[in-house]
């Protein structure tokens, strides 16, 4: 796709980007390829080297980045990281002009997203929580599923940017609602990984060929994306991260704490959380979540 | 001894009264002034803030709902640290996370206050009878110094270790009691659904390996369908949230406690938060087609 073809209908926007990890780096490239005027800030400037070599501006502080951007997109690890980027010293809030928008694509607590949206609103700055599903592969192929929590008008303004990153963009509701959908996504996905791990543990205990079981199941009622991708990793005993298990572990702490606050019983998710605790205790946090199989092998 | 007491709720009020009864001079302050009245009538000194309590007594005790409350009354504005002379001892008897207790102890230490964490088990009846189990973390000499105060409130007093260790023991206590209440409720619901007389089942089990204080006390209240607190379900849920958070931080699996915690979540969601923990029986009945027999 040429830059001209990729250019968003509403014209190029001045976009800032923070969080050039496995997910963020290809996303930043897509925004540039779509013709937007991209600038970045990075805690470790060397992580921006590839983009800088292509002529992308590197700002000295988040505040500087916000001052030159209509929209800043962040994708970092935890609630505390997003809060520090937004309202810390030399944070985004210091630089944003009224009317600017912060689009946070990290996975954080719905309550944190709501609180940030409220603080920005008092300054006339817009907020979108837009966590994603699809992993590194989805980020590279620009086929991410994007779950947005925002005022409708704010989301409409940044939709052209999100369309450069994902294929399916759903407006779930007001600020925080995107993170609620993401919590549901994580709960289903990791519970399914646990179910796969138990299935292959059982097949292994019987001495049955796990690859044959995977092949048979993939075509039937138990077939799923998780079974295809994670099942294959388990059968191959490939525990190198795709998504590091510690990130799923972090997500579970958030969603289980929210469930406790709301009085919602999640008995299966609670058990999956304990298996993740055991995985962390075994020291496999930086390996793939397929390591849930290894937890069952004791 | 001269002792100050901060937080005069369901637990704090009888504990402070027992200190008075044992002959100690007690200064009190509580956020809700009306909760101070029974203590003032019994002869306690009237203070306008936690800081004033600390100015008038060399040892202070706090018994408040949650970690932010403990931070507020110890380190906040007009808190204990603001009124304490060097060498002051503060005993927090609330249930909070071990890591938070350690952090508060460090920050109080930096302001010349020796902090002990001394959470309790035994509920309101234990507080009234002065028979609480007290689990202490913190400086050994300070623990010996305040032993007479502990003895006025409790029967079994154990120093577990350094700051935070009392809260670790309390977390362990909540694992055992949380899972225990669930086990007893499940057993009695199962008995009823199977057409057996729960009263006889409990009696039989009390003589065997399934004997526990929870089967004895909580089991009895379940059979009587007496769901008045006692120990409110939302407080047990709060304590298990602390436990599950610590397990998450440490990478320790607690599958049975996790299951019990979800049952407590269900109770909160069904509006049983103000009932006693034994109301878990009602939740299990709802999950199995209604009341048994």
* Total number of strands of chain A: 9
Broad shape of chain B: elongated
Into how many domains do the coordinates of chain B divide?
A: 2
Largest sheet of chain A: 6 strands, parallel
Kindly provide the radius of gyration of chain A, computed on alpha-carbon positions and rounded to a whole number of angstroms: 20 Å
Strand arrangement, major sheet of chain A: 3-2-1-4-5-6
Tally of extended strands of chain B? 9
CATH class of the largest domain in chain B: Alpha Beta
Mean pLDDT, all residues of chain A:
93
Provide mean pLDDT of chain B, rounded. Answer: 95
Largest sheet composition of chain B:
6 strands, parallel
Order of strands, main sheet of chain B, comes to 3-2-1-4-5-6
Instruction: Give the CA-CA distance, first to last residue of chain B.
Output: 56 Å
Estimated structural class of chain A: alpha/beta
Percent range of helical residues of chain B: 40-55%
Tell me what the structure shows:
The complex is a heterodimer of chains A (298) and B (293). Chain A has 298 residues and is an alpha/beta fold. In chain A, 53% of the residues lie in helices and 13% in strands. Chain A has 15 helices and nine strands. Chain A has helices spanning 3-6, 24-33, 49-53, 62-67, 79-87, 92-95, 110-121, 135-141, 152-163, 177-206, 210-218, 225-235, 245-262, 267-281, 292-297, and strands spanning 14-18, 37-41, 57-58, 71-74, 101-104, 126-129, 132-133, 144-149, 166-173. In chain A, the strands form two sheets. Chain A has a six-stranded parallel β-sheet, with helices on both faces. Chain A has a three-stranded mixed β-sheet with strand order 7-8-9. In chain A, helix 9 (152-163) links the parallel strand 8 (144-149) and strand 9 (166-173). In chain A, helix 10 crosses helix 12, helix 10 (177-206) packs across helix 13 (245-262) and helix 13 (245-262) packs antiparallel against helix 14 (267-281). Chain A starts with a helix and ends with a helix. In chain A, 47% of the residues are buried. The model of chain A is unreliable at 1-9 (pLDDT under 50). Chain B has 293 residues and is of the alpha/beta class. Chain B folds into two domains: 1-160, NAD(P)-binding Rossmann-like Domain (Rossmann fold), CATH 3.40.50.720; 167-286, N-(1-d-carboxylethyl)-l-norvaline Dehydrogenase, domain 2, CATH 1.10.1040. Helices cover 54% and strands 14% of the residues of chain B. Chain B has helices at residues 12-21, 37-41, 50-56, 67-75, 80-83, 98-110, 123-129, 140-145, 147-153, 165-193, 198-206, 213-223, 233-250, 255-269, 280-286, and strands spanning 2-6, 25-29, 45-46, 59-62, 89-92, 114-117, 120-121, 132-137, 154-161. In chain B, the strands form two sheets. Chain B has a six-stranded parallel β-sheet, sandwiched between helices. In chain B, strand 2 (25-29), helix 2 and strand 3 (45-46) form a beta-alpha-beta unit. In chain B, helix 10 crosses helix 13 (233-250) and helix 10 crosses helix 15. The N and C termini of chain B lie far apart (56 Å). The relative contact order of chain B is 0.10. The A-B interface holds A 249, 252-253, 256-257, 259-260, 262-267, 270-271, 273-275, 277-282, 285 and B 237, 241, 244-245, 247-248, 250-255, 258-259, 261-263, 265-270, 273.
